[in-house]
């Protein structure tokens, strides 16, 4: 493994398992050395070992990481990784058509069945879940999570740290403020302010939220 890339998947939950399957579909699973979790609940996940996150201090700098954590904890762990000088990589399922007009920053995960068109910008450490649609000129800020089956229309701008739930539809030219949470099945027809919980058809702003109470929403 001396001259080969060595990859660890950050997390050991459902998103981590799905991410490992992407590597299997890419026939690159041999590069994945294991999963890292703050407090491991098992010694193995699928066919790879699970290690304590504290182990990273002993890693060499040729190791790269994929942040497969579906909660706001993703940002905290990524910041720790970056402070230690390690790099992050993106992984894209082979079923996803990618062209030169799509920009995907490091640390992002693009799951099976996602369709993206043109002039799209995906920020750092985003997760775009299965069967989501991202249309022309859409922009996702850093650490955005797009739930399965979401439909993001053209010219939509989603601020950093936002969560778009399962099956959400956002019509064209809408802006979602940073740190907002859009509940499953919502149809967003108006701009959503930053740090706002919104849901419904059509979606309406319910209340202000912060990183501290996100765990009650997901």
Q: Could you characterize what this model shows?
A:
The active site is at residue 136. One of its GO terms (molecular function) is transferase activity. The record marks 137 as: Increases basicity of active site His. This protein is mainly beta. The protein has two domains: 6-89, 3-Layer(aba) Sandwich (Rossmann fold), CATH 3.40.50; 92-204, UDP N-Acetylglucosamine Acyltransferase, domain 1. 11% of the residues lie in helices and 31% in strands. It is built from two helices and 24 strands. The radius of gyration is 17 Å and the shape is globular. The model has no long low-confidence stretch (mean pLDDT 92).
Describe the SSE topology.
Elements (H helix, E strand, L loop, with lengths): L5 E5 L3 H12 L6 E6 L6 E2 L2 E5 L10 E5 L5 H11 L3 E2 L2 E2 L9 E3 L4 E2 L4 E2 L3 E3 L4 E2 L4 E2 L4 E2 L4 E2 L4 E2 L4 E2 L4 E2 L4 E2 L4 E2 L4 E2 L4 E2 L7 E4 L4 E5 L10
Parallel strand pairs: 1-2, 1-5, 2-4, 5-6, 7-9, 8-11, 9-12, 10-13, 11-14, 12-15, 13-16, 14-17, 15-18, 16-19, 17-20, 18-21, 19-22, 21-23
Antiparallel strand pairs: 3-4, 23-24
